[in-house]
């Protein structure tokens, strides 16, 4: 289409092939860059430990769990596994999701065959992550962070309640 | 209706007519320089740009004290969203910058591009290379894990071996306690060295413009 094209409609803007291609290339590049903008989340400080409220929930009674055994429960919401452990030194509880890739951890009274000897540990059977049952600290394997430790309250009737976390937040896999 | 590209063109023309920036942006280069070998200096600058951006982002979480340095890096890697990515880009860009700078130096050497009248630009380039390596060393120490503490000790020994001035240099850079050391390496890594690099780069690029790209052999 040239300048003196008799069929040219002068009400429409004159858009050249070059303009169209340029818009397509620049627009395509812009669309590719849009997903990268999520990196801006880096600038927003992650939530700090203890700032979020978690419900006070009854777990069990002290006589339900014998010394050196454990009980699985759900905390802070349904389908989120947590583990209550009765150690000789008292009761402790942790978020039961391994901080490596999110498998469920369990408490071992006896060493797991073929996985080394880690009696009395919180153990993740996916990749052999081992956590200290007193503190949730990583003792071995690939987990990068300790297990979140749940704050426990035991009332005069021997009822055990979970009430938030003492350490180790954020929870693996939760926003 | 004006097409979007026409709007961009008009804004650009407005900017160019007021800044007269066009002759600075446009230049002619010899045909022989249209080769990947002649891109190494530009790649080094691209890595520097990436390092500046990611470094500013890391600086929002990094804490330059012996007690908090390593744990703040763990926070960046494990808790900050995309922290692992930003730190990874910073790490690999730092390695890339050293590699492309050395290759750029080799290209300039073997094409004889350091000869008259470009000797001064070679000298500035040597300074850029030295500061790049210093930036690498100081950044490595900022991690302040066992390896970095050891590396700082080795550097301390090297600086202390300088005749006459060894003691003064070590005291200037390492201070008297580890608190001083981390704070000073942080200041060197984020303020002094990048500042000097930017000044020298400006000289480097300005001289390239004055001399033009050397004809390849």
Explain what the structure shows:
Chain A has 175 residues and is mainly beta. Chain A has a domain at 56-167: Rieske [2Fe-2S] iron-sulphur domain (Rieske Iron-sulfur Protein), CATH 2.102.10.10. Chain A is 10% helix and 30% strand. Chain A has a six-stranded antiparallel beta sheet, with no helix packed on it. Chain A has a four-stranded antiparallel beta sheet with strand order 5-6-7-8, with no helix packed on it. With 217 residues, chain B is mainly α. Chain B has one domain (32-211): Up-down Bundle (Cytochrome Bc1 Complex, Chain C), CATH 1.20.810.10. Chain B is built from nine helices and no strands. Chain B has helices at 4-19, 22-25, 40-58, 69-78, 83-110, 119-142, 146-160, 166-174, 178-211. In chain B, helix 7 (146-160) runs antiparallel to helix 8. The longest helix of chain B has 34 residues, at 178-211. The radius of gyration of chain B is 21 Å and the shape is globular. Chain B starts with a helix and ends in a 6-residue tail after the last helix. The model of chain B has no long low-confidence stretch (mean pLDDT 92). The interface between A and B is medium-sized, with 16 and 18 residues.
- The CATH homologous superfamily of chain B corresponds to Cytochrome Bc1 Complex, Chain C
Total beta strands of chain B: 0
| H/E element order of chain B | HHHHHHHHH
Rg over CA atoms of chain B: 21 Å
User: Low-confidence parts of chain A lasting 5 or more residues at pLDDT below 50?
Assistant: none
What general form of chain A does the structure show? elongated
Which architecture of one domain in chain A does the CATH hierarchy give at level 2? 3-layer Sandwich
Question: What descriptive keywords fit this protein?
Answer:
heterodimer; A: 175 residues; mainly beta; Rieske Iron-sulfur Protein; 6-stranded antiparallel beta sheet; B: 217 residues; mainly alpha; Cytochrome Bc1 Complex, Chain C; 73% helix
Topology:
The complex is a heterodimer of chains A (175) and B (217).
Chain A lengths: L16 H17 L22 E6 L7 E6 L6 E7 L2 E6 L10 E3 L12 E4 L4 E3 L6 E3 L8 E6 L4 E9 L8
Antiparallel strand pairs in A: 1-10, 2-3, 3-4, 4-9, 5-6, 6-7, 7-8, 9-10
Chain B lengths: L3 H16 L2 H4 L14 H19 L10 H10 L4 H28 L8 H24 L3 H15 L5 H9 L3 H34 L6
